[in-house]
Amino acid sequence: MGQGLHTKVAQVAASAFNIPLSSVFISETSTDK
After folding, report:
1. What span, in angstroms and rounded, lies between the C-alpha atoms of 25 and 11?
2. Angstrom distances, CA of residue 30 to CA of 27, 33
3. Looking at residue 5, what DSSP letter applies?
4. pLDDT tens figures, 1-33
5. Chain CA centroid to CA 7, Å
6. Which residues form the Aldehyde oxidase/xanthine dehydrogenase second molybdopterin binding domain (predicted)?
7. What string of DSSP letters covers 1-33?
8. What whole-number distance in Å separates Cα of residue 11 and Cα of residue 1?
9. Which pTM was predicted?
10. With CB atoms 3.0 to 4.6 Å apart as the test, which of 2, 10, 20, 28 could cross-link to 24 if both were Cys?
11. Using an 8 Å Cβ cutoff, are 26 and 10 in contact?
């Protein structure tokens, strides 16, 4: 996923939980086993 999408998801999460954007952390999904 692109960085722009990560920013949008973080903004939605911050808004939904009424927390600062700086408190939201998005990590990549690991497909390693």
Report:
1. 11
2. 9, 8
3. H
4. 567 888 999 999 999 999 999 999 988 888 887
5. 6
6. 1-33
7. --HHHHHHHHHHHHHHHT--GGG----PPP---
8. 16
9. 0.69
10. 10
11. yes
**Two tokens, residue 30:** 């690991």
Structure tokens, 27? 């990590």
| Amino acid present at 2 | G
CA gap 10, 13 in Å, rounded: 5
* Residues composing the chain: 33
User: What six digits make up the tokens of 33?
Assistant: 């086993």
Rounded to 10 degrees, what is the CA torsion of 19, 21, 30, 3?
Answer: 150
